């Protein structure tokens, strides 16, 4: 047996670990919606309380992402991922026993913490293990992450119905988390010597480019969080049934996963990802514009367009961040910071859209708001050319403001 063969086998197993880890980062959020009525009835959570089961994990994904470089420097990316997956297992199992609203919110916080740590350090692992195929592997990771969201939404009510208890519909998610934990413990690469990840990340916060990437990531993912929260209620207001409106979310999730997998492969043919980013933003414009102007014309098409635009943009945004720096530790720190600030921004739009709905009596203002966000992101991404990467990330901090024009 040649030395090449084990290496190929190891890479295949590593890809399996990437896929399974990604699969576990969203289903605990999307599983709530189909079971919301039962959860609320038994725990006493009202609509605002139910919203915390989504809001708390999203905020933690933002806050804890900033700790990613610190964790990578102090305990290593591999150990951080393994510990985080163990937290996901624990959080899912605890939902089997949650009897009050605050216990449910507590499990949401625990699960959000686990997902946040994985998201913060995992792109750096991919950059280190697959330096020549970052786009393809990050596309696989992103596609599985979004596919996990669809899995949670589809399977939670089925498991709950079979078991006769909504607790089981949520707690079964411990099973794929255990599988991911086993694969990660066995096949994730050993950590290299601890670096200066925290110091690097702190220095990066002085770079205007980092804040630009945060803003783009947050505004786009704010569109995702709004669509997940309000697309089905929007069509319920149009007279649709719960099942029919839920099918739109499933279609959106499937198109998200497909775009997250395919577009990074296509974008990998050149160094400049911007034309592909603009394609995803154009699909978002078409989707949000259609929801605002012609919601009943072709709802399934609008959902698919939005899913493809949001999913493709998510994956490409991660790749662009990793492209900025050749060193995996530095690239991972930049990705963690982008996600940290981005998820904090993304947690707010559903609440803003809800306020706009209360004021105006419809979701029209919310869809227009996200149209404006997409226009802003399109303009910002014009500045993110490959030729600008080195200058944007190596410029002296005291010249940061002056370099905004060059970012």
Write up what this structure looks like:
This protein has 407 residues and is mostly helical. Helix content is 78%, strand content 0%. Helix 8 (134-163) packs across helix 15, helix 11 crosses helix 16 and helix 14 (274-293) packs antiparallel against helix 18. The chain is globular. The termini are far apart.
Percent range of helical residues: over 70%
Mean pLDDT: 83
Give the helix/strand class.
mainly alpha
Principal-axes shape call: globular
Note the main sheet. Answer: none
Count of separate DSSP helical elements: 19
List the uncertain runs.
1-6, 397-407
Could you spell the SSE succession in H and E letters?
HHHHHHHHHHHHHHHHHHH
Strand content: under 5%
Strand segment count: 0
Q: What is the end-to-end distance?
A: 50 Å
* Computed CA radius of gyration, to the nearest angstrom: 20 Å
């Amino acid at each position: 047996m040649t030395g090449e063969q084990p290496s190929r086998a190891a890479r295949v197993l590593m890809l399996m670990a990437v896929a399974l880890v990604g699969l576990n980062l969203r289903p605990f959020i999307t599983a709530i919606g189909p079971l919301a009525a039962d959860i609320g009835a038994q725990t006493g959570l009202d609509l605002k309380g139910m919203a915390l089961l989504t809001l708390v994990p999203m905020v933690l994904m933002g806050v804890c992402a900033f700790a990613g470089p610190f964790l990578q420097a102090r305990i290593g990316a591999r150990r951080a991922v393994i510990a985080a997956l163990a937290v996901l297992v624990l959080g899912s199992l605890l939902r089997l026993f949650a009897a009050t609203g605050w216990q449910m919110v507590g499990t949401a916080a625990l699960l959000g913490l686990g997902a946040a740590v994985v998201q913060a350090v995992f792109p750096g692992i991919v950059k280190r293990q697959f330096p020549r195929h970052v786009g393809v592997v990050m596309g696989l990771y992103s596609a599985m992450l979004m596919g996990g969201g669809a899995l949670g939404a589809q399977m939670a009510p089925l498991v709950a119905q079979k078991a006769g208890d909504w607790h089981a519909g949520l707690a079964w998610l411990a099973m794929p988390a255990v599988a991911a934990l086993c694969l990660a413990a066995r096949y994730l690469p050993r950590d290299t010597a601890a670096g200066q990840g925290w110091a690097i990340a702190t220095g990066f916060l002085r770079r205007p480019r980092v804040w630009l990437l945060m803003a783009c990531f947050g505004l786009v993912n704010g569109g995702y969080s709004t669509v997940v929260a309000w697309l089905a209620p929007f069509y319920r207001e149009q007279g649709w049934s719960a099942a029919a409106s839920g099918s739109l979310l499933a279609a959106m999730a499937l198109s998200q996963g497909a775009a997250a997998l395919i577009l990074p492969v296509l974008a990998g043919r050149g160094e400049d990802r911007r034309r592909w980013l603009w394609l995803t933003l154009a699909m978002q414009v078409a989707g949000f514009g259609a929801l605002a102007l012609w919601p009943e014309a072709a709802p399934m098409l609008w959902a698919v367009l939005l899913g493809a635009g949001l999913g493709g943009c998510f994956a490409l945004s991660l790749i662009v961040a990793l492209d900025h720096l050749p060193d995996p530790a530095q690239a991972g720190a930049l990705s963690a910071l982008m996600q940290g600030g981005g998820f904090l921004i993304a947690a707010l739009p559903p609440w803003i859209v809800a306020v706009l709905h209360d004021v105006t009596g419809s979701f029209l203002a919310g869809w227009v708001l996200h149209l404006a966000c997409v226009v802003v992101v399109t303009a910002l991404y014009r500045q993110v050319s490959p030729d600008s990467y080195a200058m944007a990330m190596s410029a002296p901090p005291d010249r940061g403001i002056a370099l905004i024009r060059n970012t």
